[in-house]
Amino acid sequence: MTAGTLITVAPTGAESDKAAVPALPVTLDELVATARECEAAGAAVIHVHIRDVGARPTLDLGRLTDTVLALRAATDLIVQLSTGGAVTDGFEQRLAVLDAGPDACSLTCGTVNFGADVFMNPWGFMKELYAKTQALGVVPEFELFDFGHIAALHRLLSELGPPAGGHVHCDLVMGVPGGMPGDAATLVQAVAALPPGATWSATGIGRTSLPVLFAALAAGGHLRVGMEDTVTFARGRAVASNAELVQRAAAAADLAQRPAMPPAAARAMLGVPHRSR
Ligand code: KMH
Ligand code: ZN
Fold this sequence. Notes:
This protein is an alpha/beta fold. The chain has 9 helices and 14 strands. The strands form 4 sheets. An 8-stranded parallel barrel has the order 1-2-5-6-9-10-11-12, surrounded by 8 helices. The chain has a two-stranded antiparallel sheet with strand order 3-4. The chain has a two-stranded antiparallel sheet with strand order 7-8. β10, α6 and β11 form a beta-alpha-beta unit. α1 packs parallel to α2.
């Protein structure tokens, strides 16, 4: 079992509406302030979606590049850009995200029903995206929403070889309506099917957030939390900030005697090169 707990914060996502969720960080200043608070609370990785001037999700390359630079200047967090974007984003734009020069990126290993929508990740796109991460030295995190995605990950590794950095790290995204359920029994089965030597984190969407958090800690995994996945802190109480979700995750990790891992240790574990500010 790993000594510490890697905590990733996913502060914004592409789905929640700023008007309905005022605490959601959508401007660059809000995102940088959130990143600083979450680093102080125990996060080591930030999973980034950005918004345009109207707070709508965007994959604008100039804004993404500015975001990477600003987060690097303000924090030591590993900057992981989303290549998933919003369900409406096209494949070319999603591939171009890597040109913003992040440390890391998400890479979803298959198509999945996503509420009333479909999150498209056909095999050809996955392969092209993975090959581009290898060519550019961007460390991928494999996002697994369902069991078929784990099979596709095995296939990707066997056809294209190891990722940049040499280490396989996965994130189980559980409880999406259309994906695998967010409960302890499912988590244990999913972890058993991962490639040997892989590390993993888990996140539960909405009300599955806490069951998945505690199951992941019990099973020796790492944690992803944030307002991309959860906007309710407790029954009837909205999340006030991403930092309070990171604080709660760090407190649970302390109780499990696997305290939050600082960014330098996370870089060593994930194979992400060190950088100076
Ligand atoms: N917004 C979802 C459609 C990722 O960031 O890579 C996809 C998503 C996964 O959030
Ligand atoms: Zn995301």
